[in-house]
């Protein structure tokens, strides 16, 4: 049977193996159509997302404006007190100069202001030398060595500071400072200071009734240097509200701003910075970031979600359409083709109901193709069967003819009178029977292209031992033949080689010392590298050579010739009362015999 080239697509290929390793979902038609549609709709999706992002940015700006307004409202009591103190300090700075020459009058004025405005824990005038002699409590104090005084005098201007441990008020206060112009001009003679204790500042604030759904913002007031003046939660908790790694002084110089960042504790908050008095007083309000993105009943992600759902919905529709119209019919047809390719020759009707006309045409073409293949295979099987029957008959008749020739030789050897003639006829008979055994094994083998070595060599051994045995001459045989398949090209010379070598071994085999019968060892075994070896060992007397009795050496010549025909290496040696013959050769591939048989 001739084996032609494998058609493309019928065997595994690197491309098929690569595609098999990929995700099956990514290989489906629905997925690919959806991917193409996704690329086609991508510009629209990008436009939709950009519009949604602009809408969200506008909503965030609006929320920032709301936060600024809420911050001003909740901080208005504190800011009001600080603004009032700034106004009082400015008015006092303009009126205090005539009073500086009269300590009692100056103390009385300061005390009166502190009395009518109880929110001030201290009111006083500090001259440029730091020796305060005019204060609401009438006490004198020397600030000249105080670091805060030195800092104020280094940059004397209207400002607001915090003194966490005032030496006069002995508590944490907000200091509202305003410089006093000297009488003769040319600078400042000192400054007026009003102290607002933090304990007197309002701690609670509320929004309007309609805004109760929003969380009350926390706030900080600070000066232009970023110093925290007051905190809605108290100065002790001001650090929990401060933004991390954000320079407040720079933010204050930039003016109105909103930003999102984390605090030192890791909480994400939304901040709004509002200038109250430009260059002097600022308020920083903040709420948790989740409040910043809470746009009332409308979620921040809603516009993005709608766009994403529309985009995903179009992809799902494309997937379902491809699955219903194409993919399921292609899979059904693919399963039928795969089953037929794997050897299943039962081809049922393909249900292509609802499939497009192009796919139905492919299905009908597949059915016609399977019918043609099944018909051709049936004809081919009939032809192969007829050839096998004919070839078996040829091997059988050759075997019968060889057995007939062997029988004639046997009859002729019985009529021969000389021992030399009988030995010659018996040798020829054994060789002919070896050939007959090979042909018997060939016609009994199902494939007619190979012979099992264990069966072939076992039959030849039994025939030769049976012909050589006689009353009073028995042999002890040990054999081990591996079931190696052989091509006829090697089975014939191997069987003839075994016949000659075994015949010679029987001729010269002698019992070992202390043994009653000669011992023969036969082995046929595989070797690495697709090779095999035949080994024949017999016990023999020292000094005897394995040669024909007539001295012609025909047996050794035939053994060498058959070993050459096998392409093998012949090795013989004799030692310790044992004679060994070994032939190693390379096995022919069975495909070679199949190709020749098919041809």
Automatic annotation (TrEMBL):
Gene3D superfamilies: Histidine kinase-like ATPase, C-terminal domain, PAS domain. The keyword Coiled coil does not apply. Its main location: membrane. Its EC number is 2.7.13.3. It is an enzyme of class 2 (transferase). One of its GO terms (cellular component) is membrane. The chain crosses the membrane at residues 29-50, 300-322. GO terms for molecular function: ATP binding; protein histidine kinase activity. Residues 324-378 form the HAMP domain. Keywords: ATP-binding, Kinase, Membrane, Nucleotide-binding, Phosphoprotein, Transferase, Transmembrane, Transmembrane helix. InterPro entries: HAMP_dom (IPR003660), HATPase_C_sf (IPR036890), Sig_transdc_His_kin_sub2_dim/P (IPR011495). Residues 1-21 are annotated as: Disordered. It is found in: Membrane. It catalyses: ATP + protein L-histidine = ADP + protein N-phospho-L-histidine. GO terms for biological process: signal transduction. The keyword Cell division does not apply. This is histidine kinase.
């Amino acid at each position: 049977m001739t084996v032609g080239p494998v058609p493309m697509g019928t065997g595994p290929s690197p491309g098929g193996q690569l595609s098999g390793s990929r995700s099956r979902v990514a290989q489906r038609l629905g997925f690919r159509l959806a991917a193409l549609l996704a690329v086609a709709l991508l510009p629209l999706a990008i436009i939709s997302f950009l519009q949604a992002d602009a809408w969200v940015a506008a909503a965030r700006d609006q929320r920032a404006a709301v936060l600024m307004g809420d911050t001003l409202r909740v901080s208005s009591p504190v800011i009001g007190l600080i603004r009032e103190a700034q106004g009082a300090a400015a008015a006092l700075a303009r009126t205090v100069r005539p009073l500086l020459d009269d300590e009692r009058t100056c103390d009385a004025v300061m005390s009166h202001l502190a009395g009518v405005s109880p929110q001030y824990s201290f009111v006083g005038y500090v001259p440029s030398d730091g020796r305060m002699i005019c204060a609401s409590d009438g006490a004198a104090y020397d600030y000249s060595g105080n670091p805060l005084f030195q800092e104020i005098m280094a940059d004397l201007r209207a400002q607001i500071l915090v003194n966490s441990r005032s030496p006069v008020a002995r508590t944490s206060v907000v200091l509202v400072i305003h410089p006093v112009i000297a009488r003769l001009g040319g600078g400042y003679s000192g400054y007026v200071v009003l102290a607002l204790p933090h304990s007197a500042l309002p701690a609670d604030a509320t929004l309007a009734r309609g805004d109760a759904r929003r969380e009350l913002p926390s706030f900080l007031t600070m000066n232009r240097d970023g110093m925290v003046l007051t905190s809605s939660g108290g100065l002790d908790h001001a650090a929990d509200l401060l933004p991390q790694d954000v320079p407040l002084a720079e933010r204050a110089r930039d003016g109105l701003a909103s930003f999102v960042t984390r605090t030192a504790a890791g909480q994400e908050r939304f901040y709004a910075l509002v200038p109250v008095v430009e260059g002097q007083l600022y308020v920083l309000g903040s709420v948790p970031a989740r409040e910043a993105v809470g746009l009332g009943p409308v979620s921040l992600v809603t516009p993005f979600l709608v766009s994403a759902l529309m985009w995903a919905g179009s992809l799902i529709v494309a997937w379902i359409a491809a699955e219903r119209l194409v993919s399921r019919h292609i899979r059904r047809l693919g399963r039928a083709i795969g089953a037929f390719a794997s050897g299943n020759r039962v081809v049922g009707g393909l249900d292509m109901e609802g499939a497009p006309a192009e796919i139905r045409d492919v299905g009908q073409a597949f059915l016609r193709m399977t019918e043609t293949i099944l018909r051709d295979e049936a004809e081919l099987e009939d032809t192969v069967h007829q050839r096998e029957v004919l070839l078996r008959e040829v091997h059988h008749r050759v075997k019968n003819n060889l057995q007939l020739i062997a029988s004639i030789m046997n009859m002729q050897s019985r009529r021969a009178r000389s021992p030399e003639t009988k030995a010659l006829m018996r040798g020829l008979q054994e060789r002919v029977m070896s050939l007959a055994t090979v042909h018997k094994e060939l016609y009994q083998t199902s494939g007619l292209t190979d012979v099992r070595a264990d069966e072939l060599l076992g039959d030849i051994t039994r025939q030769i031992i049976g012909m050589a045995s006689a009353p009073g001459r028995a042999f002890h045989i040990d054999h081990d033949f591996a079931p190696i398949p052989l091509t006829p090209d090697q089975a014939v010379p191997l069987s003839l080689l075994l016949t000659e070598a075994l015949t010679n071994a029987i001729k010269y085999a002698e019992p070992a010392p202390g043994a009653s019968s000669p011992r023969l060892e036969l082995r046929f075994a595989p070797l690495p590298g697709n090779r095999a070896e035949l080994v024949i060992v017999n016990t023999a007397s020292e000094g005897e050579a394995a040669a024909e009795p007539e001295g012609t050496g025909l047996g050794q010549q035939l053994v060498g010739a058959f070993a050459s025909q096998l392409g093998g290496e012949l090795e013989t040696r004799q030692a310790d009362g044992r004679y060994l013959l070994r032939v190693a050769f390379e096995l022919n591939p069975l495909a070679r015999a199949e190709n020749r048989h098919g041809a």
